[in-house]
Write a structure and sequence with these properties.
Elements lengths: L21 H17 L3 E2 L5 E3 H8 L4 H6 L1 E4 L5 E4 L4 H10 L9 E10 L11 E11 L3 H17 L5 E7 L6 H14 L6 H9 L10 H8 L10 H16 L5 E2 L13 E7 L7 E8 L2 H4 L6 E8 H5 L13 E5 L2 H16 L4 E3 L5 H10 L4 E5 L1 H6 L1 E6 L5 E5 L3 H9 L4
Parallel strand pairs: 1-5, 7-8, 12-13, 12-14
Antiparallel strand pairs: 2-4, 3-4, 5-6, 6-11, 7-9, 9-10, 10-11, 14-15, 15-16
Helix pairs in contact: 1-5, 5-9
The protein binds adenosine-5'-triphosphate and magnesium ion.
């Protein structure tokens, strides 16, 4: 036996998702797909890694992600590559590279899959985690903002996840945001001594980020800071009000959170986050917002967009357990080589008919029946030399122990009648 020291262990901060837990994941993913489709979103599959510039350029050099969370390495050709820390930058890269803006119409995309961030692992925070996200390219109308937020909330609703807080804010536009930025920087400068080291540096480079800082001291200072909401220009204010009115029309209540800035550089106007009191310290289950300049930054035609990402691990910890063990309906027990060949053929036909069929390989009848029991099979189909000679099978219902002798060429009809109620 290998000692524990000899076992190769997974990387810290990543998880194996094992059966039966994986069935909850499948259920959540399937439900999300249905919701996306009901809103006419199509799936896009983007690569797991990209040239580092895709992320550093889009997410922003001063963001937490780019400053300290990216898994970046140099490949054999000397190029800097990065495991994707989020989906939006790659989707925008793909949108531009594949000219998805042609023909010009709204493009509605969703994705799901693993993301990678070199963070300190803790409950609800992993180094490989999963996101479900969507992006809508084209319309700048507040209808698009409301649709995106409604779509995200519908995913939660369809999974039966309740008691979520939707926080919503407007980050302004290139007209009004710089004015606010100046106002905020002035205020923060006057309290620079009290800020954490990181934020003291950020006052000049990116003062909005200070509002997002998790440290207690900075939180207090942010509380008293001037708000973006009070600095919005007329157009941004109208856009924000209309977004909320449309959300109200579908019963989605958002709480205006004037200090919500989100940790990424690319947002403008609508930004939002969803939190759950049931999650503990890492309470954000989803976040998103409008990003109007990213497509242009990637040298695509001026196209506005909005998107969100849901953290799948945190979402799954909120859904009522819908997992289930995958149990075979039929469990074949062949007792000789020739019977095994016959069982292979019968199993193939029954699988094609839609049955869940498993097969036992070797051992005494008693030990194989034990296996059928352990697998929670409904029925064991036993074929030994004697049965084969008579062209019959012994069909044993595992729950009742009841046994029937069934001719092999009538097996399908017999099973259909007993298990599907078909004549
Ligand atoms: P946080 O404030 O928790 O660090 P974030 O702002 O970095 O979150 P986003 O980049 O907005 O997160 O990602 C969207 C969602 O992805 C989050 O709301 C969260 O549910 C999930 N998420 C982000 N980072 C992790 C992680 N390291 N492990 C697990 N889930 C994560
Ligand atoms: Mg983070």
């Amino acid at each position: 036996m290998a000692g524990k020291g000899n076992i190769i262990q997974r990387i810290k901060g990543v998880k194996d998702i094992l059966p039966p837990d994986v069935s909850v994941w499948q259920w959540v993913e399937d439900s999300a797909r249905e919701t996306f489709e009901s809103f006419c979103y199509s799936e896009i599959r983007i690569p797991i890694f990209e040239k580092t510039g895709v992320f550093s350029k889009a997410i922003g050099e001063t963001s937490d992600i780019v400053e300290k969370e990216m898994y970046t390495f140099t490949d054999r050709g000397g190029e800097s590559l990065t495991l994707r820390p989020e989906g939006t930058a790659s989707v925008v890269r793909a949108y531009v590279e594949n000219q998805m803006y042609n023909p010009p119409s709204a493009k509605k995309l969703y994705y799901m899959g693993p993301m990678f961030r070199a963070e300190r692992p803790q409950a609800g925070r992993y180094r490989q985690f999963h996101q479900i996200g969507a992006e809508l390219f084209g319309p700048e109308d507040p209808g698009a903002d409301a649709e995106m937020i409604h779509l995200m909330m519908s995913i939660f609703e369809n999974l039966g996840v309740e008691d979520l807080t939707l926080k919503i804010n407007s980050l302004g536009c290139p007209e009004c945001r710089p004015v606010y930025r100046e106002k905020l920087a002035g205020y923060l400068d006057s309290r620079r001594e009290e800020l954490c080291d990181n934020c003291a540096r950020r006052v000049d480079r990116n003062p909005l980020r200070v509002l997002d800082c998790k440290s207690h001291a900075c939180g207090q200072i942010a509380e008293e800071a001037p708000t973006m909401t009070d600095s919005l220009c007329g157009e941004c204010k109208t856009h924000f009000d209309r977004t909320r009115a449309l959300l109200a029309a579908v019963g989605v209540e958002g709480k205006v959170e004037p200090r919500l800035v989100r940790g990424l550089d690319y947002y403008s106007r609508t930004a939002f986050e969803v939190a759950s009191g049931a999650l503990g310290a890492q309470d954000a289950v989803a976040g998103g917002g409008r990003y109007n300049s990213l497509v242009e930054q990637f040298n695509g035609p001026s196209t506005t967009a909005i998107g969100f990402a849901i953290g799948l691990e945190r979402l799954i910890s909120l859904v009522e357990d819908k997992g289930g063990v995958l149990a075979p309906e039929l469990f074949f027990i062949p007792l000789c080589a020739e019977a095994e060949e016959k069982a292979f053929l019968l199993a193939r036909n029954l699988r094609n008919d839609g049955y869940l069929v498993d097969m036992s390989y070797g051992g005494s009848l008693k030990s194989q029946l034990k296996k059928a029991n352990r697998a929670s099979a409904n029925v064991a189909v036993i074929i030994g030399e004697e049965e084969l000679a008579k062209s019959i099978a012994l069909v044993k219902e595992m729950k009742t122990g009841e046994q029937s002798t069934v001719p092999l060429d009538e097996l399908t009809q017999w099973l259909d009648k007993h298990f599907m109620g078909e004549e």
